[in-house]
Each structure stands twice: as structure tokens, then as C-alpha cells.
Amino acid sequence: xxxxxxxxxxxxxxxxxxxxxxxxxxxxxxxxxxxxxxxxxxxxxxxxxxxxxxxxxxxxxxxxxxxxxxxxxxxxxxxxxxxxxxxxxxxxxxxxxxxxxxxxxxxxxxxxxxxxxxxxxxxxxxxxxxxxxxxxxxxxxxxxxxx
Length: 147
What we know:
This protein has 147 residues and is of the alpha/beta class. It has a single domain (9-144), classed as 2-Layer Sandwich (Nucleotidyltransferase, domain 5), CATH 3.30.420. The protein has helices at residues 44-57, 76-92, 104-117, 128-144, and strands at residues 9-14, 19-26, 31-39, 61-66, 96-100. A five-stranded mixed β-sheet has the order 3-2-1-4-5, sandwiched between helices. Strand 2 and strand 3 (31-39) form a beta hairpin. The radius of gyration is 15 Å and the shape is globular. The termini are close together.
């Protein structure tokens, strides 16, 4: 895929059956920031949160993390995440890109643990890691895009 525009804003979702993490980033800088964790979009409240995020950030595109096994094979959650991506595209009419999310949750947990042990972060609920996982997915997606 080619670059979206000069400085597109992209929202990323780390989809889960119970909760979904969201992050926002700028493709120009290749950086992302965790936003929030919310109830899965399989429930009405989850879609309302997504609508609020879209209204607030006015993204040019969306990215959805697609989980694969350690060996790169599809797993039961793979199709559920892809279905979520199709629903986003259908509901909101924005380009939706899939990004492999292998190990993003583990990296989010590691970052959280390192920050806490270094005294750089207050103790946060574990669910916050889903938003950090979305940040990691989005930054990896930015890095994979051609110049």
C-alpha cells in the first residue's frame, strides 16, 4: 500500500472478545499513542466508543491487529478480527488495513512491567495493556509501509 497522504492520522484497534484497545498515530512520524480500552464492539457500547473516537480523531484510515500463531498460522481469533475489520469498513467507509499482531500483547505486558519496575509509571489496571498493544501494532504497521 502506498502512503495515505502527507500526514495521515490512523486509529488502530487491538480487537478482543471482551475488550478492545485503541491507539492513534501519525504516519509521518511513525509514532502512536495508546488511547483507551473499551467493551468489545460486539456490544452496542463498543460501537458507540468507536464512533466517538472517529469523531474526535477524524482518522484517514484504520488498522486492525490480526492475531496469528507463533508460526504465522491462522487461529480461531484471526477470522473474528477480520470480521471486525470488515464491519469497521462497512459502517464507517474508511480504508481498513490488517496488521499482524503476533506478540503485541506480550510486548505490551513487558513494557508495562519495565515501566513499573523503573518507577516511571503508576500501577495501572492490566486492561490498559490492550491500548498499549494497539500502539505497538500501529507502530509496527507504520514501519512496514513503503517510503
